[in-house]
Structures are given as C-alpha cells and as structure tokens.
Amino acid sequence: MGIIVPLAGIAATLFVGNRHGSAADEKPPAVAGAPSASPGASDSSDQADSPGPKKPKSRVLFGPGAVQFQTSSYGVDIDLDSSKPLVGDDLRGGDLTAIADGGGTAGSTNFHGGPQLAATIALLSGNGADPTEAECAEALRRNGDPMLQNPPQHARFCVQTTEGRTAFVRITSAAPGGHSMKLTVTVWDLSA
Fold first, then answer.
1. Is the pLDDT of residue 29 over 50?
2. Is 55 left (phi over 0), alpha (psi -120 to 50) or beta?
3. What is the pLDDT of residue 35?
4. Residue 138: which H helix or E strand, with range?
5. Of 144, 148, 181, nearest to 166 (Cα)?
6. Which phi and psi angles does 95 have, rounded to 5°?
7. No. of H helices and E strands in the chain?
C-alpha cells in the first residue's frame, strides 16, 4: 500500500496536466538558456540573433572642444590626459608637441608624440565626419607613429595618449605668420 499512494499521485498529476489538450499541440515551457525542444524551431532569444555582451558606450573626458596655442620653434606641449587639455612649455606627460618651423601654417608645424615620443599619432584621410573612439583605435593600431610631419590645414588625426586614452584632433585653423593654431579635440576616457 506504501507504493500505491505515490504512484496514484503521479498519475493524477499527469492526467490533470494533459486535460487541456494533447501533448502534440502543446509547446513545452520555455526555460531561459535552454535549447529549443522542437528541432528547427527558432526562439526570439536565439543566441545567433543576440548581439552578445554589450560594450559600454565610450565616455568622453573632454570635447569636442577648442584648444588654442601659439606655435613655437622650441615646441609647445599639449597634455590630453587631464579633464581639459593643458597647453604649455615642457609639460611632463605631454601627449603632443607642436613644433613650428617659422611659417606659422599647418604645414609648417610638426606634431610629435609628446616630449618623450611616448604617444602615438595616426593621420586620417579625407575631411569626413569625426571618427568614433573605435575608429581612432583601429587607425592607431594600423598606422600609429610617434611623429606627424607637415600636416595640411584641416588635417584630422588620432592620438593614443601616454596614459592610454584615445583622442581625436582636427586642425581647425593655423594663421599664416600669426603662429597661432587652433585645434578641435575630443578625448575619450579610459574604460572602467
């Protein structure tokens, strides 16, 4: 008699569960992460359709904003790793050094990856829209160099800073003879 009661309970559960339709026209309950019970069936949560883990959106540390300075044959350093780019002579941790040859134009100013050539620069072609952080990172990976010689007016380039940040720089203006240069800069913060 001890085994009959549990068997009767199981039979009753199966009977009540199948009362509202046959097993052929009912779908098994969906379980998150479990494969589909019917072959060839696709579920809207199928892994092929999901984008995978979402990357956090890049957080901008600065910009786009203007950075203006007087060019010099001795060099002007620009630190892009601060909350607002710093411009000065002989900056420790400078990411770009702008050295003018006296002409005062964009083509007469060379950019170096800081005083120690520790930052990397990649010139972008064309005059298109500002790149994303990922596009800059790819350009730096493919074409990075510690020096950018004679960039043209309105040149666009990416910088990998000495602290590992990615930045985008566009030469906005470089007045001939005025030795004044204006850049538009965007710096993305490090991922958390």
1. no
2. beta
3. 37
4. helix 133-143
5. 144
6. -100, -25
7. 2, 10
Whose CA is closest to 185, among 99, 108, 81?
A: 81
Q: Cα–Cα distance between 108 and 71 in angstroms, integer?
A: 10
Neighbours of 139 (CB within 10 A): 22
pTM above 0.70, yes or no: no
C-beta neighbour count of 162 within 10 angstroms = 20
| 145 secondary structure, DSSP code | B
Residue with tokens 């100013």: 109
Place of tokens 């204006």: 182
Cβ-contact 52, 179 below 8 angstroms: no
CA distance between the termini of the chain? 65
Amino acid (1-letter code) at residue 63? G
Question: For residues 95 and 85, what is the distance between their CA atoms, to the nearest angstrom?
Answer: 10
| Per-residue DSSP letter, 24 | G
Please state which of the ranges 43-47, 67-71, 77-81, 158-162 shows the lowest mean pLDDT.
43-47
Q: Is the pLDDT of residue 34 over 80?
A: no
